[in-house]
User: Fold Flagellar hook-associated protein 1 from Alkalimonas cellulosilytica.
Amino acid sequence: MSDNLLRIGSSAVMASSTLLNTTSNNIANINTEGYVRQRTEFEAQILGLGVGKGTTERLVNEFTLKQLRRDTSAYAFSRQYLDEANRVDALFSNPANSIATGMNQLFDQFQIANNDPTTLANRQLIIGSSEALLDRFNTMSTLVLDQDLFINQQLDIYVDESNGYIKQIAQLNKEIASYGTGASRPIPLNLLDKRDEAIRKLSEMVEIRTLDAKNGEKLVFMATGQSLVVENGDFSLLAARGNPDPSRKELRLQLSGNTNVIRDINVKQLGGKLGALIAFREEILDPTQNKLGQVALSLADALNEQNKLGMNLNGELGGPLFTFPTFSGFPYQSNSAGSSLTGTVEAGEGSKIPPNDLRITITSPTEVTVEAVDLKGNVIAGSAIVVPVADFSQPITAADAGGDLYGFTFTVTGAVGDQFEFKPLATAARQVGMATTRPEDIALASPIRIDQTLGNLGNGKVANLQVTDTTPATAPDYGFTAPSGLVNGPWTVTYLGGDSFQIEDSGGAVIGTANFGSANYQNLFAEAGVDVGFDFSISGIPSAGDTFTIEFNSGGFNDNRNGLLLAGLQTDTTTTRLNALSTPGGVNSASFNQTYASMVSLIGERTNQARNSEAANDALLQQSKLWFESLSGVSLDEEAANLIRFQQTYQAATRILSTSQTIFDTLLSAVR
Assistant:
């Protein structure tokens, strides 16, 4: 009997000691990151004498663990996205940085100058406001560029962190697999804790999925399906230079054992902090930079074209106020050697520029295709413009494309199949410059003056004078001459009666005759089939023989007719392409302020969405943590109760041993 008591007592003491060790270990690691609560379970002996084999295991629910990783990825994504978005939102919500304020100040100066066109100081204020507006464009674009560079730096940092976790998981897999799955060499539980914690930290960087291998390893995959940790190996994330834009970091996978094995990553479902950086760049940063470039180019082009239609304070035809840079396209790595593309804004086409990058492909020896791409680099269906090219040594213009080439002109060299990414809007807001700093060059006056002869008998009056082109005429008899004048001017318009007008030059040569079917004398030159770069109408009813004299507006410095048109650009729908598929001149048009406001609204909307998403994902993560901790977390109250309970069982077990010893001593005494 004493022998049975000894066996039972010894096993009870050992079991209680193990339970005390497990409980003590739980208490000691309550603050250890990634530690999972352990529990020891025992089996009774087959013959019912003593405690059998004990097994210590981790209290973890695999489903809860996967849920925690998923919610960790979602929260890390929304938190990172919100942090980045808040910086840009604060930047553009500050009134001191407002581009709209700068544009309004510029047009206010035009209004002031129109009140007294001869005052040089008023014109100087236009130059000053123009320079201040360009400085503001440059500052804001540079700040957005800084954010882009910061994104690249963060990608490098987070990729290094992710690679560290991937290698750690792969190494722990090897250690765990070396123990096997049998009972003879149980896997140290702290290795499983370390691996789960490394996987959880990796889930902060990217959204992941896991599978259990037969040898005890954990296989880790991205949510998009690419492998990160495989049996007996792992991949590394690689932040590589983009193709074709080397300044744009792109993510790829590289096999650790063979750096030549590289796989592309589908970033659409990347998740985590890395996914947030990519999404922020595509959804906020790139659209903001593109919109800034679109507004800067369309504004400068509109002011240039209208100023060229006027007469400056020197009595000469106006010129451009702003300069445009030449943008270089990025050739793809697969292009032929020496391929290149350059482009710039085509004069008068700035309103047709979309807020998109363009992809130019040499599709045949006589053809180039220009396509708009979305923020993810995919070609927008229906955006292709096919341009026949007779001579690649000459610039490709809107005229070659039938009147629309997204506002640019290109010069391309290369072989069939070569492709280029054209991204002018990324730098445009920083590169538009002043073409003049002379206040005299502001062309507030109209270059044309039309006077009716004092002896006219009818009440016909000049109306709706519109100047459309002051380029020196290519035809010998019509149009403007540089720097100030009309070819063979002044001209005379004579009403012949019968709703007909005759146009003569200064030498009496007939330029054309306008015949109207009724007394609606609109656009005389167009009706006469003559293109001279301007046109006008006659209101009222003239008498036969009434004449009107058309001449260059020499000495008309107090004229503000073109200045009013310059000021009117503030509210005109000068941005005719809010997206790549909208038709120029269609209903999808906006003013400069409306275009800028849509950009600021996009930033605010995306930031607010991110704020709501972050709050929701934080609530889900806290719920998952509580669910996980309810089973796997260490509770001091529960462990303290267990400690007392196991201490009592230990003491009771020692009493069994003591009783066994007493019985044994009694038996020895009885037989002596």
Q: What stands out?
A: The chain has a mean pLDDT of 89. The radius of gyration is 40 Å. Residues 504 and 517 are 21 Å apart (CA to CA). DSSP finds eleven helices and 25 strands in the chain.
